[in-house]
Fold these 3 entries.
Entry 1:
Amino acid sequence: MQLSSHTRNLLPMSADDIYPHVKQLHMMENVLFDISHHILHQPTLQSTRTSSSPHAAPEYLPYCVFTSDAENNLEGTSSWAPGSHSQMAQQYQDDCSNGLIVRQLFVFLKENIIFDIFENELTEMNVFTDEISKEYINKVPGKSYRIEKILKLFIKTKKCKDFIECMRKSSSHRHVFDRIQEYQKCEEKNALKIVEGEGPKFSVNRQLLQDHFQVLYYELEPREIADEMLTTGHFSPNDHDSVTDLKNRNKRLHSLLNILERKQLYAPFLVLLESLGHTVVLETLKTESQFNHKPCDDALCIQHSFTTLRKELPEIDHSTLMVESVLDDSDISDITGCDHVIRQKSKLIKIILKKGENACNTLLRAIHEQLKRDDLIRKMISKNDYIQRRGRPELSPNLRSLTTTCLTEHESFLYDELEPLDITDLLFEEKAVTILAHDEITETICRENQTKNLLKTLMANNRDCLHFFLYIIQEKKQFQYICKRLENPANVYVDDSTVQRTWSSIEHELVREPGCVENEPIQVKLTIPGRMEIEQDLVQCISSRNADILETAISCGQMDISEATKGSVVLQLRPVTDDAVQTLLNAIENNRLLDMILEMVKKVDKAKVMDYERPLQIRVQVVYAKSPVTETNTGSLNATLIKKRVKINEKTLFEELEPTVIVSALSKTNVYPKTALDRVREPRSCFKQFQRLLAMVEEGSPESVEGFVTVLSDLGYSEIVKLITAPDLENKSDLIEFPEDHGEAENIRKLITMNYKNILNEMQTPFARETLSKCNGNVNEIREILFDKCKSRRERMNTFLRFILHDDHNVVQFAKVLRKTGLKELLSSKGKRQRENMSDQGIVLTFVGESFLESPDEVLFDSIITLSRGDDKTDAWTETINFQNHSNFFHSFNIDIPEDPFQKSFTRNLLEASNLEKLVGEIRSLARRVVLCKHIKDEDMIPGTVYVYEVIVTYRKKQIYIKEMNRQEEIDFFHRKNDNLIKIILIKGGFADVTETKRKVHHEYKKFIKFQNIYLHHESEEYAAIANLIAHKKVETYKQSLITVKDSIPINRIGHIVRNAVLRALSKEMITELCFEASIEESGNIDSDPYYCRSSSTVKRLKKELMEKTLQSVSDYLGSEICEEMQRYIVTDIKSKFDFDLDPFTKFLGISKLILIQSIPTGIAAYFFNPYVSVIVGAASMVGTFIISINVNSRSWRRNVASEIYEKASKNREEVVKEVTSNAKDQCVSTQWDLNYVAGQLNGFTEELAVRRFGKILKVYILHSVTFY
């Protein structure tokens, strides 16, 4: 696409103006690509704001004159010889000119270069053949995007001259070279000189663009904007990557807006929109009007049949091919970027709808002419007519009165129960959500985030979407459980994590430990002496299939509960994994059994558990489960195995078998009755005959199945016979996938149990449906449970997952579905276990033996658990808040973390480590309740803890009398000093004039509170004011910690830190030590037994592996040293500025182990490890044939290898220092910018709190630092 003169005007300097500074330009070019443009040009930008012409171009040009400070910092600047200046300047002049040509012709080049030919030419040139370059080029699929990547690599590496030479030699790209020559001639004629032009007569900012995000999303393709911005010089190749590498259009647009804001490129952006003809966008931004996308009739018909088309359209490749004439490369990229075939079809349909009438007509014509599906078109027309006639649907009386308040009241329940994918699809079908809203919900992987976006959309209630949401949950069977819950008032949720734990001490006394146990079903008997009501409650909870208890059994114990019976509490447990029983009963090394039991006890009515002051004792006895002895029928087992494999390989059998031939052969035997064979012959369709044949086999006796296999063998289906009867993998056909690998299934099963609650939280019906379509067993029963309207989502998905876990094939298929839908992280072994580890609660474990208590012989495991309350209770309780405006304000609290798809900062890791998500949850919980404490310990005083002292006020004979509840409490309350506390005198009783009552109480205690901030609150008043105080304290404390750490990041010391760390890491002693420690997979390290090799090829291979692992260890050590040194600087800086304890900042100061260590070493490894390892390892190829054997674990041999590494690494030490310093500094700068952005949001929230809080206090009395509420 050719640029208009307005866009060309953004390059104000001619080549002659640029050349005097080309040396400085190229020495700093890589740094410029990674550092914010407005930071480097701050003086120019300041002048821009005062300029009479807001679109004056010079300030936006990346190729500018550096200041003397920047010039002095350039390595080697002062060492130029006078005689060499002209020659070097000429070289840089050529590089600069060629770079400008490739930039200016970027769009033309990517559209006209033939990738396959170009790739071969690059190979012949031996350019960009290393692994790092290949990975960079192939990051985004699609040939046009790979051409982009190659062009950007030429620009980054300053090899544009080589590119132009390649085009000159290429016969296939003669037209490209002609265009380059044409441009060069124009350049010689000074075509780049500035020509005055005018852009749009208005300005924009980030907020305006965000407010009109929808029109940008509909009308702009961010990749196109990024192309033009790169061409005009406003974007570096890294900026361009930040936009174009993203597969999701929503994220691309957000990334584009972030760059425009960071580099303050709004004026060039408007000029560009005008030159590209985006009048709708410009008019919307100028008038700040509401964008309204009006669909045509065909689009309405398609959208009203959205879920039908999603199912009925053929596979995505075929569907895309049908409408390829209306799709471009970005559309294809967006479609293939979706993780699941259903989402890919959904994306295709939405793209068609967005493109308008011509695209919609193309799709309908393809359905009619190519698919021959007139029945589908008739169904679409019928549904469209029905929805148009129906209009706004009717709701039941109970739902009709509901407003968005019901979503707030049931927020916790909805987060647990909503299935956003199906619900959003149905809302879109009803035109209740826009394409943008649908994308924001469904193109997010995590169900929690999908639910968050769905609730946000419903709360906004645009397009009357709440009404349609209620209609959907009313009509659809699987959502009626939600419907019934919303019809009733919400229960007040109390977060027990705010209150001290129930038990002050836990003792576990072992009477008998198991030896080696079989992994068989076990029976666990729990006896609670004198507490029969607790036993009964436990049995009732387990027998009712309580989802939480079933989750606990699997996640804590890797066991599935079959049943629970009375007579104490007797649990029948079935192992899920191969070592579940042995692990569960190993109480010395883990607390799985204890955890499981304590989690179950939590589900019992708390009043019953806590009613007694004496300790709660639980006797635990484990035996093998009793089961009736049955004779093993080998024939029956073989038949079951064959039926199972027939089901698994149904598709292959359908492709290979001929039903009529098989039925004819079976009719000549007495294996199956004639009526069964006639039923198979009855249908005319081959597929239906095949289905009935398989059903007949699956329902047949073992003898019938054996006869079926014999007939197949006689008919020559030997490969099929091997497939369904093979005892091991060696006998299966090479063409058939055989998923029955127990080892693979067992590994997956352990990962599922480890992450069980996370997986359960993510499960939605579409995933379960797809998995069941490939499963063995009683699939129909589980499918019915998925749509049980009386069960919650968690109960239904719990049943589904337990069904999956007990079959190897099902487990493997489930893992495949998770990977295909982008949820493979749920099977990560690095993930945290989603259960509270009770061992953190100070468990006292002792072995008392059977001399203490006799245990029957058949008992495998015997122990006593003792739970004590103690006297350290906090007397904490909750008070509810019934103030709707307050509730809405706190529920809306959220912190937007800047997008960072390429991990250029460690902000997100820092905020996760500092529990930002927990802070958000705590603030939101204040929407409905506050927690108050009467007794408190110093270690429990987290910021925002409310410490209450109660007084009772009575009124007798016109006098006010104050009664103290407890003298000791008064002393503790007024003498305890801690800034984390919010002290409140809670007044009970009094008379009608609350203000006068508070005045009297203040007068009574003013001698204590003269120098303290203490608030007076009457029990008759709303607790919203206290919630405001808590929120202010929590957010201010967090913000202060954030700002302190941000200001203490030692950016100016990074060069010094890196250089010292590199000197230590690349010292000969350190490399030698790490080489000694490096463990070769085949031989070990120096602490292992001697490992002698005589073969030169073996020594060469082991030497290469040793060098690679040593270099990786050096890289890790270097990163660790840098991070720890930065942490020391941060701690020292904070101590020097503030005279207080660092405990409040503990959660931030773990960054050396948790945050930077995850990011900085990665950059080091990428730069240090990959380019040089091949050079170093190349020395290994010179090893000749050995006469004597070599011990690769010996110190002498490894010391020689370490010396080779040291010599090579020393030559590149300065390059390592330079690159690592640059990367680390860029990360720190980006992090500081992001933390400022987050702190600004926190500050905005506290300012809003101040308005809400103090706006109501001005009219009441404030005396001696005491605030009356």
Entry 2:
Amino acid sequence: MAEQHLDSKQVRKAVKALLGHRQQKNTLDLDAAAFTLQVGLKKAPVDPSPKPRLIPLPHRVRNDAGDRRGCLIVKDADKPWLKALLLDGERPGAKTTRTKLDEGIHKVLALSKLRTSYKQFKDRRELRDRFDDFYCDDRVVPMLGKLLGKSFFDRKRQPISVRVTRGPESLREQLRKADSCARFVLKEGTCAALVCATTDLNEKEIVENAVAACDGLVSCVPKKWRNVQSVVLKLPDSASLPVFAGAPAAPRSYAPPAARPPAAPAAPRGLAPPATAPARGFAPQAPRAPAAPRGLAPPATAPARGPPMGAPRPPMGAAPARGPPMGAAPPMSAPPARGPQAAFHQVPARAAQPPTAQFGQMRVADGAPPPPGPPRGPPSRSGSMVSAPSQQAPKTFQGYAPAAEGGYVPTAPGGAAAPPGAAQPSRSRADILASPRGSMSQPALPAAPMSMPAPQVEIDESSQCDGRYMRCSVKTLPSTAQVASASKLPLGVVCQPMALDSQQDAPLDVVNFGSTGIVRCKKCRAYVNPFVAWVNNGRQWRCNVCGFSNDVPNSYFCQLDERGRRRDRDQRPELSKGSVELVAPGEYMVRPPQPPVYVFAVDVSAPSVASGLVNVAASTIKKCLDSLPGAPRTQVAVVTYDSSVHFYNLKASLKQPSMLTVPDLTDLFVPLPDDLLVNLAESRESIDMLLDSLPQMHSGSPSPASCLGAALTAAYRVMGHVGGKLCVFQSQLPNCGEAALKNRENPRAYGTDGERMLLLAEQSKGKSPEQTTASWYETRAIEFSRLQIGVELFVAPPTNAYVDLATLALLPKITAGQLYYYPQFSSKKDAAKLEAELTRALTRPTGFEAVMRVRCTRGLRVSAFRGNYYVRGHDLLALPNCTPESVFALEIAHDAEAPLTAGAASVQASLLYTTSSGERRIRVHTLVLPTSPDVGVVAASADVDVVANLLAKASVEATLKAGLDAARSRLQQRCIDVVAACRHGRSSASVGGYGAPAVRGAPAAPQTPSQPPKLPESLQLLPLYCMALLKSAAFRGGADVRADERSYTLQRLDGMAPEQTRSFVYPRLFALHKLPPSQTPFAFPPPLNLSAESISSDGIYLLDDSLQLMVWVGGASDPKLCDSLFLQDPSDGRVMMKPDPGGDSPLSRACKVIAELRKTRPAYLALEIIREGDPQRQPVFFRHLVEDHASFPGGQYSYQEFMAHVSRHA
């Protein structure tokens, strides 16, 4: 097996180096690159075959299966039924209907057609380029060599043979197997190669594919592993990194049989030659032993023939060491003596060595030697000059010391050279590629070490990025993985890269480097920031992320002050501020910046028109046209759908817009593709006329159907060449056409393990669970993300019907959009909320075609991402639209292969995007935090809001993977672990509740079960937040939360900022009947505890849970106060709050509180009035009282009981 020959760690190092090389070479890294596995053979195959061989892989290499086109070559007699099976899924003459053959086959080509229509070379070449994959009936394989010709075989496009005589089901399985395997052709020569993975896979999957591919490839080679000389891994634009090196074939040495006297050893340079010259001829040479260090005796092996090239010459008169002393017995391993007795003999073969040993005989070029003269030296790290020694010490790097023969020998832990035969440390080409000096050349004089650990950085808090952009869960990071594990705290950063992009906030400083080019690290590609260190009198800067020293361009050079900082620091925002925006040059663009595009897909079915959704959406869109970003380049299109898809010709030359209806949903086409997406300024009159007449145009539509899938396909074809923002308005479950969904709601599954399936997207199922594939909506969302299309989904069912939000939410989640949900939508009740949120979605600042990458100091890594995004590569977040509401949570972990050695750790987030005006920008946020080996210091610096945010988002993932019960258990156990770590943490000083370790043998202080655990001041609210999360609508048990409501809550929670999470976890409760007089500036009244003890029937209370506002009116409240605050709608009897009259009346005070709460939320907070005793809405209000008992497993504790439970188990 490959695992016995390949070192998994070595393959992982090579993959990591290649991925890092890929990041440095490609700024956007949007297209996947192929990993090629090359195997070098000792002997070429005797019988090569052009037939492709399939090698199974654990992970699929290609993710574009839906876009690949295949061609099947068969006999003439089999073409009719195969073509019918391809088109309609029915075999002619069959009694039963077969399933449609859709495994990537787009054409069935008969053998006679291939023979007559593709005679010319250009025709065969066009056929080769028209399709991605070729398959053929195994019965026609012998005839294809002449019919296909040289063009197919040179490009390795030989068809894969399948057996079509076994029936459609067997053929489908064969095609599916062929698509999931790697293809290998054993050709002439000693090199065999295949594509084993792409950069779309993560690091672990690439390593597993490489090992499996190597195993399968070697099994096809004669003599298997005995014939393998080397195995390398590479990318198209990278060097080949060896991962295996075999033993070479044993050569034979020849000596003539004629007798001759033994040859005398050669004299050292500068001495006279010996008197007796050796006879001419070939003689066997013994292997040369490694030279011993200076001052030590050489090893007892064959006598040395002279000093090696480059070794220091012995002083005149000194006898060179030629072998063992006189009278000493020759060593047992000495070679046979030269002379007549020496005949044919076998030179012992060199033992197989790992690829790291190959680099033991290589050096890294460090430049030419210094000229002779007085001692000179580079400036020291502090800026002063140091003298160079008279004889430069040889260089040692990563376990290798210079040998006398010009190579490197392994060193002992103490630094001395290890004895011969000692195991060599791992020094692979992957290390060299990732190292600062990665070029391989001839041996040269050694210079300074290649890399140095980053020194401790003096953290200037005034230069940190704003906390609203980036917040870490702790303000002091643990220095080791052991400290992080002991603290039990989640380590992570919540990043909101465009948080302050609004009119009231000052914009970020924009820096244009001009002809100098953007200054960034050449190794890790981090951007220059205020926390880099300037060395060599300002000629170099040391990266605070990786520690690499970079040269400063001449046009960017500036002198340093007495503190070692640049004198122009205050004049350059990138050197004085932690958040800055850089103007991106042309190399950061895959294509020219596209104009902002807005496409509106509106459901015009009967329920949507009757509820008023069409009317509210059309009127709001018309009001926002003047405020759409990007004028005058903005482009707009409108698509409506019910049981058909309706396009609208908005060409400026038309007097009024015209509607084009496409009823065929199976083969949807786009009529007049050039007149559907129009410029807003040029076609403004046509667009206004359409939006005014849209509700009346479909008011008489009797169709209750909704073909959302076909509408998404239509929008995909209209805007796919440009990208932009797609706003979808849906009122019911998609029930016809492509991607129709079924009603999966099962009330009996609520509160059981089966509820988890309702929270997952509906998937396409095969014969077995292993054949389950991703849903249609997930596939389409990934394609939207690739084409830079972001989806804003507005779901407004007029009733409480099921709409399968778990599946529909994939559209905004993968495309970095947002989900809006309006259950039981009514234009009177929800028009204000829909209008406000749609206006915000259309007019807020937006970054188009965005990608984001986060870099951490060496020793730390990003282990997980959370939020709305799609990962391309392994760490690049693809964001078609990035807005101020885009929030991403990053979990940080310690890297086991590279420990954290710096005294401060840096986290840098870079967002590359296109502004609405068409300018490419790079937004850089840099956060630097100190490190500490003390668990108490780390816990005392915790930010409880960020900790709760990370715990909530981790619980969302646990809910979808393991279910609600498992998520609640993990959250509760995590809280107990943190409390236990705080109570039993060992700290040398008392920091926030941490005292000195207890004396051994001393009795522990007794604690009552109700005694609160010892927690730092920063974590005092953590148990309360954890208990409140358990009882929230996202994770609470029971049957009172429907599947759509829970799916919406989970989706919103996954994209919340810490400030919003705080109010969602522990809502704020205010007593409106006891509001104090208004103050200037405004201040919120003190909130009440979330317990029934805080509520009485004679009061009126306002509750804010960050998603909506609820006012509970007690049955015994003051009638006069109720009359002054509320009014009743005579049409439907709905109770509403009166408008603000101004002044300092109770109504004015309540209106000011509500207005200030809405200012703090990006989404509109709708206000709902709930009367005491309401059987439907009062339970919703009371379930927010999290300090009381709840009737589901895990929620039966009150706050005091939960604290006692945590204290007892901690």
Entry 3:
Amino acid sequence: MSNSLIVPLVLWGNTPPTHRISAITFTPDFQSVITGCRDGQLCVWDVKDGDISPKLLIFGHSSAVVSVTSVKNDVLIQEKRSHFVSVSQRGEICLWDISDGRCLEQNKLSGIPTCIVGQNLMINNELKQCVLCYGQFPEILILSASTLSTLLTLNSRIYPDWVACACVVPGKSVKDVCDIVGLTVSGMIKVWRLPPNSTSHTLYEEESRQVNYTNSVDVKISEGDSKVMLIICTHAWQVCDYVDCSLLCYTASKPGQSWNGGGFISDDFVAIWSKNGLVQIYKLPFSSIDLFGSQEYSLPPIIKLYHNKSNGSLNFITGGYGASVSLNEVDVTSLNLTQSVYSSFVKLWEGLDRKPAGIIDQLSHDPREPCHVTASLFISQYCYLCCGREDGSIVIVPAAKTCKANLLRDEFANRKGWPPHKTLRGHHDRVTCLLYPHQEATARYAPELLVSGSADFSVIVWDIMAGTLLHSFHTHGGEVYQLLVPPAACNQRIRQSICSVGIDHSVALLNLRDRKCILLASRHPTPIVTIQWRPEEDFLIIACSDSSVFVWQMETGHLDRFEQGQVAANILAACDEKDRLDNKAPDNSVNISQALKHRNIHAFKALAQQGLKSIMDGLDEQDKNDAETEEQLHVRHDLQIPSNDSDSHIVFFNTESLIAKLLLEHSSRTRKKQKSGDRNETSTSTGKAMINNFIKQQVSRRSKKSSSLLEVDSAIDIAQLFVSCLHAWGMDPSIDNLCTERLGLVMPKTSVCFGLLSHKGHMSLMMPRRITGTVKNDNGNHHWCISSSLTTQHLTAIISIANTMMELPNASFRSKIKRGVFELNLGQTNFSQVKQSWSLLATLHCVLLPEHMEGLDYKPPKLEFLARRWQDRCLELREAAQALMLAELRQIGAAGRRRVVEGWAHHIPDYVDPQAPPGDPEHSTSPASSSMSPEETGERSSINSEEATAHHHHTQRQSVRRRHATAIVILGVIGAEFGQELEPHYSLARYTCKALVYLLLQPPSVKLPAHIPIRRAAIDLLGRGFTVWEPYMEVSAVLLGLLELCESYSR
């Protein structure tokens, strides 16, 4: 029930990111706008006080978002919040929480969808929140808005064809028979009738009629008694009778103008808009035309019409190509424009008092106009960040120090040349790509080699230790935009090479050892989209954008064959299948460096699911070698296409790894002190030994200095940056003073933009926001008001770090500063003061924060998230989650705990069902004994994640089991700590006790290992609330089960 706690943080840079809007929707409460873009991102915009401002940017899809729709999802316990659904060109459909951008569910559709619509439908006499989906397939899918599984399929018997547009016929009541109208691309109208008591999973059309309305883009049915149908085609729009499809009104578009959508304003008025953003209102049949809005767009804007019945207005939402959203409000009666609001990313950046910092802005000649970063690479071995800039230079800088200089009010930030860095100069145009081969193949490449590609057509090999240029390759006839490492199965000559891809459609293999080009594959007619390797056959396979495939021999450099059509597709499919079998676990460094650089969201998801390579594989053992090589901080460049986009960087803090590294550094220092003390005792009488020791220290220090001019960031540097960003500044001035004076924390320059990782590796990032004069203490309170999920993550992280620092002797960030390097002050005089300060910091965030946030929109931590960490494998995270959960249960009081019990009571599994075999893990009444999802357990699961994704029904079963396990922990904690509130519910206390005992006594198996967190949580809660559970359990069986576990553990 635990996984690595990773906290993202973003530095947006001086220029806003691109967001080319391709889909838009308005939430039913008219408080939020959701947009999807052609790069697969989603953005949530707040509509408040006559203003629109971007709130969240979500990395959700690997291809263009084709449609978004808002739904109301009441599945979550005791929560009724707005959610929305998005779908991409590749059929990826996701359910999102609008408050924090968390991905709640995900599914994959076959075919290419073009539109989704949220709708309430009666299915099997039950009102359900549904999503209608249609596109380049002959069916209309009705999906569940909560699980995204298919509830109903609308098929065609007569001339099945792709559905161009569809809508639900408005009815007087949702309990009536519902009609769904669809218009195919060949111009045929189909009507499906959905009765409320329908139990079938497939329905066929009730009526089909050929109307020859080709190139249709939208269809709408009026809500009045006289049912008329509006059909909009690119060349004309027409109004027909819904019953017999007789034509009532027809209007052709003007020359050079194409219609793009429309809708009914009332029974007498329709609104039609064109691809150039021109909205026209027609009175039927067409006695008058009212033009009220026009704007020039570089690409067709996305326009939607919504009726706001609360104030009797029409809302036209327009999404532009340049990350812009406009809201035009029209009065229904007078049809006059009453309000027009416009917002964009550029407008937000221009209105900020302090523009978001770039990652190395302070190293530019003019900080007001910094040199933009065009390529970036994080070297985890040294915690270095390599940034290629538009002037051709490459800057290497310690990652934590440069983040601290840009985010915090660091006293060193104003020093010239701070942070310490190296600058490599050799390119004559902007740097387009960077590669550190040693990070991707440790045994094959030297650790000092860095490779860079540039728009000056060159590839340069650098020595990052000495800061020198080793060799320059000039093989391409255009910009070099990608660098790759060949697979390990290639021959020795190829293994010592790297692969470069040019914009002139050429691919080169460059040998780093011999410093020469061994293969130049050029003359490809179209851009290169895929490079595949078949080292056994000595083949390099290049796929182009025209679906052609070139097969090159790597050893000889000859073109072996050229294929097109189905043969080319078969070659690529065979390569993909082989890669899937050979590389089931993707390489972290490849995923990190390439994930967002080329919009490879699948690589990013794989990275996030792995939790950035958890440092401890065992449950109770800590592998020192893994912990030493694990990344406590990771920086990734959000490089986007086109190349003039922003220099945004995302910083990942791995809390669990950071805690382990802090403890390891402390133990290492302790051992060194002990060794030096022992050495001093044995050599105090020998002056010669002391002199020799001094000479050795000077020689080693000089050799280290010559090998690398940059200091490596320590865990203390990273922890100081992390805690300084998370701390609730301004809540308590006395604690703030202790944090700065005793602990060495540094206040942020402005509000920090955090992120949130969620289901299947999706990520949402906070956008920068304008600070008004009424906002108090923005540095400390904003991220506590976003969502309960974000609050839970941040509180757990800062409390666990504070508890770790409290355990270390006099662990303060205030230290003797020597060339900017922070070291621990190990004096014992103020040990108690420092420990007390860390304790006060933890108490502020664990207990006092709700009191200080009174009057603000504070989002308390989520009990279910804390319950899943009740027995986390990391002791510090476990203690933080337990303290937070108990504090929150006390904070909500008896009434709040009663609501929690009522909300989770129906999720407790019935282990005392006489029909359920106690040892049957597959039975529905014992779900906790089955495997938990990898995202929740943090352990090795017997269920493959790919298999779970392929079988969506299995994912649903996992979700049910996860809720059951969460309910056991939550009710077990309430029963153990507040037993008097659970005892009146005799059956509930009994079921909870039986569930805990079942988890303890169930024999170890593949699906329920002996030391899985849910079993450890059951043992802990049985001990905490023994007096409460004793009447409902057999004490002797529990004792024997504990003894058996002890005996198996000792073995």
